[in-house]
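Re: weekly structure request thread

Next one in the queue (63 aa):
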Amino acid sequence: MNEPEPTWRTSSYSSAGGDNCVEVADNLLDRVLVRDTKDHGAGALAVAPSAWAAFTSFAAERA
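Done, posted below.
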């Protein structure tokens, strides 16, 4: 079975001014990818979906 290509979207946790933007690809089964919007060549951070869910929950509580 072929894995799908990451579908990138700008994270809702990025700043409105566009100076601190990250993109997230959360369409993969076993990992969530996070990358800098302005520097795709720098690679991406891969985290477990459960870790991403915990992080976004933590961030939402402090927003």
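The chain has a mean pLDDT of 87. The longest strand covers residues 32-36.
Next request, please.
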